[in-house]
Amino acid sequence: MNFKPVFRRQQRHGTRLLVLERALSIAGFALMVVAAIAMTGQHEGAKGATNAPNKAGSPTPRYLLFWRTPEQAPDLIKLIGEQGDGRTRLLGFGVPCATFAQEKQVPDNIHRAFSVARLNNLALMLHFDFHLAWSNRPELWNWFDPKQLGYSPDNRRNVEWFGWDGPPARARYLNHGEAQRMPPPMCFTSKAIRAEWTRLIRDVIAPSLKKELTALEHEGKGRLFAGILVGSEPTFDNYAHTDPDVAKLVAADRAPTGQVGYRALLDRGYSKDHPPTDIRQALGEIIQETVAFWCKDFVQAGISSQKLYPHIPAGIPLEATSAPVESAFNAWSRPGWSTYPVGYLGKNFHALYDALKKHGNPVWGGVESNVGMPGTLVDWETYLGWHYNHGAALVAINLGATGVELPVRLEKSAFGPEALAAYRKFLRGENLQEKPIISPEVRQMEMRHKMELLQAGFRRWQREGRDPAPIGRFVEERLPALLQANKLDEAVALLDEALKRVNEKPH
What global pTM score does this model have? Predict the structure, then answer.
């Protein structure tokens, strides 16, 4: 997922929290609590929904997946301790593939993944990227450097432009935890690019995939195939709406800072004299049509549409992606989104549910998911419930990102005690409870009140000649970690215990 604006904003909040923690003292920790709560929050709005059968019917298998290499996949069984019943709930793994970059390895990669799935009775999802990793194909994107491989001025039609008259992009800038410079953003409407997509799906992926699926069905293990994640969050970037680290790379390259997508718009009949009424809507429609193109190619190659999921980045501001929730819907697949609980998905998935209802409540997938983003409000059980209780056939937990901080954070969250308990509950077929999310303002008032009572108790102890320092240290040593982990229920319980101690009569 492109974590550009969301991650950086929340990362700054996390830094402030650490500073406040270091300043913690008996006299001042109330201020830290108020500041920290203002930056976090807890559950709001829920109704305690349960893990009822999805609306497409209970026979639909549901998958809990982790994006791992085949070599890492067997460890999931030992770590989680449950695999599901093999029919309605299945534990599994997902394997990403940079299709352009790994074209020669695709058949072997598919075979190895299926072999591990078959041997360990683990479900399997495959992910094929068609537009991010294409640095090995300069003959498609190098329009600007005659000294380098692949140069052709005609390649400007295969990359995106910053305006009706250009310039074509020379690089793409992404932040998946750490800002990176990549080959130019691909033009989704290029005829040459689309011919390559069709070739890769028809001639490289489909033959090996269908062979493995036939063997899996012959063994009576067809349900182990969870499906295919199609694409890697296709977007039209806007470098006027980005984070500081990406902005530094853009500035260092003296690259344009505006919206890309004009080459695709030109290919679709728009122009400087006949621009779209709403450029973001027009770009969103191109993304939707592009995803449909990929999925249709898979279906025409013999893959069921019920096993295909797009990869649309939900929760990120539209001005940064031009990829609306609606772009996940097409006639050739089920809808699928990245579902990190950030942005407009931070407190609920209403934006997804509303779109699903509009399209008849199809089965869908949370194809890239994790609660571990900085500043998230929701607990793991509620988060899984937001998916499975509302018609999702799968949740695929992401553990990878660029940089150092974010990958560690995602891994720690995904395999922490709270997450493991939620996974086991789902795989055992137990109901997933959706806890209400209390607004930060309400939680702030509650904790401020408890802090005021506690401080009043400290002052009373001092007047009585008693030493409140041990109780202060009891809170000081535990409270920052709970706030950092967004465990606000436990933080409240800690304050309640401190109040109980401070209100005890002297012996």
Answer: 0.79
